[in-house]
Amino acid sequence: MEREPYPSGLSDERWALIEPMITSWKQDRVARSATKDPGTCDLREVVNAIFYRNRTGCQWRYLPHDLPAWSAVFYYFTLWRKDGLDQRIQELLRCQVRERARRLEDPSLVVIDTQSVRAAAGVPKATTELDAAKKTPGRKRDLAVDVMGLLIGVVILAASAHDNAAGTALLDQAAERCGMRLEKALVDQGFKDETVIHGALLGITVETVRRNPGDQGKGFVPQPKRWVVEQANGTLMLHRRLAREYDHRPDNSASRVYWAATANMARRLTAPTLSWRDEYQAAA
Description:
alpha/beta; globular
């Protein structure tokens, strides 16, 4: 790259992780097109622009001029969402992170949770409502993660939607992406019998993790095993675009979660692994 890179940009090592998927997509797209024109847009810079926007929260038209034109970035962002490329890249990196941790590619247990996120002005009311329990107007961002906090599925619903609607949709996604290896899902007390029954139909045991009565009135208290989904939500919130619901379309909002997870895992896979001696010397 000729320009000075932004902190959110892809290093050569991180680009090498996702470049094969994007190159394969581009070749397939060109082969199916009538003109066979590969285009001139630098797709690495398009990904850099998506990461920049996710991390800073800026509007499309406020993308810096040394990145590709906002219209081109929006075009590829939408195209990759429709083709499912954003999800496939995220799944590929998730498998690599799990393998590096000496785990099988697909988890046997997932943790499911919902988070109500306020909607920004201008977001259509048809896709946002009030979460009566949390008094939050906006949408519910619903996640399924593994025990490492890695994203398995994401569903975006109006904040008024019951947790069961999110639970059944996430169980469907988890069953499709994890296959027969998935055995159990952990949920909180907001998920009712409908989610448990739906899990049983899919061959998944849905277990409700109940709060300790002694923690009543103490505010947020991490629950055993379920805390990883809270950590995942907190990590995603570092991407300022996810601090509120800005996107008019819920599927665009879900795509942003996939790209945020991709950025986090690419950084995780390329971070240097230090021994305890190196860490001690660095801290001294």
